[in-house]
Amino acid sequence: MNGLTILLGTASAEVKAKLSGVLQGEGYDVDSAGLAPDLFARLGERTLDLVLLSDDLAETNVLDLTTRIHDLHPKLPIVVVATEPSVRDAVEAIKHGAYYYLEASIPDSDLLDVIAGALELELELIEEAEHRRARRLVSFEDLESIEAIDSIMRRHDFASSRLVGVLQDIQKEMRYLTHDALRHVAGRLGIPLPRVYSVATFYKSFSLKPRGRHTVSVCLGTACHVSGGVGILEKLERELGIKAGETTFDERFSLESVRCVGCCGLAPVFVVDEDFHGKVTQEEIASILENYE
Amino acid sequence: MKSPSDRTSSRKSLPETDVCPELASLGFFKSQRLLALRHRGLLNPEEIDEYIALGGYAALPKALFDMTPEEIVDEVKTSGLRGRGGAGFPTGIKWELARNAESKSGSKYVVCNADEGDPGAFMDRSLLEADPHAVLEGMVIGARAMGASEGFVYVRDEYPHAVRMITRAIEQAEDYGLLGSDILGSDFDFRVSVVRGGGAFVCGEETALMASIEGREGRPRPRPPYPSQSGLWGCPTNINNVETWANIPCIVERGGEWYSGIGTKESKGTKIFSLVGKVVNTGLIEVPMGMTLREIVFDIGGGVPRGRKFKAVQSGGPSGGCIPESLIDLPVDYEELAKAGAIMGSGGLIVMDEDTCMVDLARYFVSFLEEESCGKCVPCREGIKRMREILTDIVEARGKEGDIERLEELAYAIKEASLCGLGKTAPNPVLTTIRYFRDEYESHVLHKRCPAKVCKAMIVYRVVPERCTGCQRCVQVCPVNAISGPRSQPHNVDLDKCIKCGACYEICKFDAIAGDAIYIE
Ligand SMILES: Cc1cc2nc3c(=O)[nH]c(=O)nc-3n(C[C@H](O)[C@H](O)[C@H](O)COP(=O)(O)O)c2cc1C
Ligand code: SF4
Ligand code: SF4
Ligand code: SF4
Ligand code: FES
Q1: pLDDT score at B279
Q2: With a threshold of 0.90, does the pTM exceed it?
Q3: Ligand 2: residues whose CB is within 6 Å?
């Protein structure tokens, strides 16, 4: 049991058996009701974490039901399962307050993902995944790095609202964010570790993987896209033997694509560290890269 | 076919006596009107004295000593200034809401939005780098008008130089008593700090931006409450774009009446556009609202280079739309652009020629937005993904009959049911390209042909034996050795090896002795 209760609204014994099985298998407590009045009675009686509504309830329109539940309990996530799905209904359901609109035929694992998402269980999942990944990376324990991180946080007055800035500065100094660094920051700023992880994974400029000494960023903004930016990226991928998002084996270069670096007049553009190279042709690339050791 | 060197000869030649022509006499500058960019290139942004010498910080004492806060708000209302960050909401009205809002803790905030996420637009970066004090002065005046005591400039982390310039400007203004406590002896206190964004497009949206300033992940939340009611840390907050702020000193100094004399009925003043893409003169331009696209692209921009044919202009970034050649005489203001299915957005104008594939462009924007969707609501997250899958199928020659209609249906769902502006406007680039270039979509779907010869799955590179001189330039650039042939004899492309990178086409077109011996079909 995971201590979370889901109320299932369906009139069909078959749907009920199938869904309860899947949910109970995952540790949820399941309660169910086949008629709207029963459903509302349950809503009044006990604390629930989520409502799963099938569109087969007799004499009740699932959209009206969604609206009524949502008005009564605005914070309670509602997931609608449609046996006869349509785009129009999906739009309406979401507008009426549903968190998600699913086709009854979707695989069980997807259903469980949606429910976990609705219950905001994702944070823990992220943490777990990152944890596993981080353990495989070189962990830095030496005091010097801890010292450096502390002095960065000091510059930001140890203010929890400066989390993004703190992580940016750590990344500038150490090229990427290690699990230890994040854990240390979480402890010092008094922020739960999952929140630090969700910030670190939300923003594009953070990397949780080791990075090269030089960062090559190819602009794929609109101006660069129409002026051949993709060709430049592909040429760099061939030249360095890696794909965008990867780092060369010798840790000399990390390659990434970015959206507009604000020199659109010079399209196509790519940037190495802080040097801008504008109006580049595929031919020039190899010789430009030679300047970076 | 014109050669690249014709670019210069097509410009008007100057009389020989004019050794150093006046800027204003050049086609590029003649019809521009510089207000926000008034100090462009004239001052060293690192020296506050230069800004002051050019008349800067003259509006501030006027606002502090000769005007009441209500009068400042009224002046901005009279000017008709509308937000330059995208939606074009009247700035004066927004200020009034923030001014009248109650704050439980007594604090109010102002924010300068310099997240500049639209790829292809760079006016905010340029303003912060070249004239940071104009933005700061606007913010101090606004803070005075609304009763705010603290301000933030939220800048993209991709703009390190802009961060340096605005940080330095803040320090200097503090030294001069133009920021901080008791500004110019007026008893008014106002402080500004710089916050760097983390590289997420959605953080430009105001509620996401505030979450980011508070140190959380930048996901939008439903409005109301609007920031003017409950913004940063629950206090009334006013957010304006960089360019909006930069216009304020001008308006206070010369009066709202004067400002409203420029532009069109509903859209007052000037707008900075970044004119980029397939156009001869690229760069930032500032023109009165209501100038036609034709004037912008052809008179100021000098038209399309290399003798190619003009096709469309994309305006408003990923939330915007494409305006086709048939609407080239459209006067550019908020209303007219919206009627054409596009938006003003932050002012990116990307010119496209016959070599741009509109379906590929639509897919480009949709995949941009797919990556940038914060994932909070389903229609945006799943709907955009589905659109991208369909568009990818179409450009990779797997399109099916009915795909265009499916795109339209999805577009409707995403527009209607998304929470924030990102999702609500995400289908625009798809809808406008379908509206104006449906034939191009049909050609991809039904005939598996890409008229612009962009989509790799539908093209092959070949050599015209009669034209090829065997100069071997193409052999040197081909990354996979797909081209061969004896020197001085016609060459041949091995289609099994060719990865369609286009390098040979480029080199043969512009650098080979014969030229144009490689073609795409
Ligand atoms: C997805 C999204 C991205 C946005 N990005 C920006 C941006 O980069 N810069 C900006 O000034 N406004 C942006 N906006 C608009 C802001 O939410 C807000 O309306 C604006 O900053 C208000 O300033 P203004 O009234 O001066 O235009 C964005 C809106 C959305 C929905
Ligand atoms: S519309 Fe998209 S970007 Fe906006 S809140 Fe929803 S998922 Fe996030
Ligand atoms: S560059 Fe053009 S002209 Fe020269 S060998 Fe290649 S195809 Fe022939
Ligand atoms: S398109 Fe690229 S891969 Fe193909 S022949 Fe030309 S240079 Fe070689
Ligand atoms: S689109 Fe590449 S720099 Fe702006």
Answers
A1: 93
A2: no
A3: B 202, 220, 373-377, 380-381, 418-420, 422-423
The 10 Å Cβ neighbour count of residue B499 is 14
Residue with tokens 């570790």: A193
Looking at the structure of chain A, the number of domains it has is 3
Q: What atom of ligand 2 comes closest to residue B220's alpha carbon?
A: 5
Mean of the per-residue pLDDT values of chain B: 89
CB-based contact B276 A265, cutoff 8 Å: yes
Architecture in CATH for domain B270-353:
Roll (3.10)
pLDDT of residue A122: 46
Q: Compute the mean pLDDT over every residue in chain A, rounded to the nearest whole number.
A: 84
* Beta strand residue intervals within chain A, DSSP E: 5-9, 29-33, 50-54, 78-82, 100-103, 214-219, 253-258, 270-272, 275-277
What does the pLDDT look like over B441-485, one tens digit per residue?
A: 999 999 999 999 889 889 889 888 888 888 888 888 888 889 988
**Which residues partner with B151 through β-bridges?**
B110, B192
Which three-class secondary structure state does DSSP give residue A151?
Answer: helix
What is the ipTM metric for this complex? 0.79
- A-facing residues of B in 218-257 (CB < 8 A) are 218-219
Report the 3 state secondary structure along B201-219: HHHHCHHHHHHHHCCCCCC
Question: What CATH code is assigned to B31-260?
Answer: 3.40.50.11540
Q: For residue B263, give the nearest of B19, B469, B505, B33 by alpha carbon.
A: B33
Pocket test residue of A218, A224, A276 for ligand 5, highest count of atoms within 8 A of CB: A224
**A231·B361 Cβ contact <8 A:** no
- Closest residue by Cα to residue B421 from B89, B77, B81, B82: B89
Say yes or no: domain B358-447 is CATH 2.60.120.890: no
Residue B259 near chain A (CB below 8 Å) = no
Residue B103, pLDDT above cutoff 60:
yes
CA torsion sign, A128 to A133 to A136 to A137?
Answer: negative
For residue A208, being part of any structural domain is answered with no
Interface-testing mutation among B118, B122, B128, B196, with chain A (most A C-beta atoms within 10 A): B122
A259/B277 CB distance under 8 A: no
Cα(B501)–Cα(B212) distance, rounded to whole angstroms? 40
The domain locations on chain B are 31-260, 270-353, 358-447, 458-517
DSSP, collapsed to helix, strand or coil, labels residue B5 as: coil
Q: What confidence tens digit (pLDDT) does each residue in B281-332 have?
A: 999 999 999 999 999 999 999 999 888 899 999 999 888 999 999 999 999 9
Considering A182, A202, A222, which residue would you say is the last residue of a domain?
A202
* Confidence category of residue A262, pLDDT binned at 50, 70, 90: confident
pLDDT in tens, B249-272: 999 999 999 999 999 999 999 999
Report the candidate in B466, B452, B468 with the shortest Cα–Cα distance to residue B504. Answer: B468
Mean pLDDT, rounded, for B374-381: 87
Range of the domain at A186: 143-202
Is A70 within a domain?
A: yes
pLDDT in tens, B185-218: 999 999 999 999 877 889 999 999 999 999 888 8
List chain A residues with CB under 8 Å of B317: 222
Probe target for ligand 2 pocket from B381, B386, B414, B424, with the most ligand atoms within 8 Å of CB: B381
d(CA B207, CA B219): 7
pLDDT at B198: 79
> Phi/psi at A61 (nearest 5 deg)?
-85, 130
